[in-house]
Input
Amino acid sequence: MSESILELWKEVLKKAVDDAKEGPSEREIKDYIYCTKANAKEWIKGKSEEPGSFIWVCDLLDLQPSAVRREIFGR
Output
C-alpha cells in the first residue's frame, strides 16, 4: 500500500482518537463538522473489520486494536 494511503489512515485514526478524548474543536463546530465524541467512540469500539473500520485501520497501521482502545479508554 502506498505511503500516502497509510498517512491518510494515520490521520483518520488520530482524528478519531482526538474526538473520542476531547470532542470536536471550536473551529469544527463553527464549520458545522459534527464528528461527535460519541460517533468517534462508536467507531473505535466497533467490531467490523470492513475497509474503513477501526479494526481495519489498526491492522493497516500494524497496531493492536485492543491496545489502542486501552490507551484511549483506560481499560
